[in-house]
Amino acid sequence: MTTLSDIQVLVSAGSKHGASAEIADSIGETLAGRGFDVTVAKPEEVTDVAGYQAVVLGSAVYAGHWTDPAKDLAQRVAAADPKPAVWLFSSGPLGDPPKPEEDPVDVSEIVEANSARGHRVFSGKIDSASARRRS
Ligand SMILES: Cc1cc2nc3c(=O)[nH]c(=O)nc-3n(C[C@H](O)[C@H](O)[C@H](O)COP(=O)(O)O)c2cc1C
Question: Does residue 126's CB lie within 6 angstroms of at least one atom of ligand 1?
Answer without folding.
Answer: yes
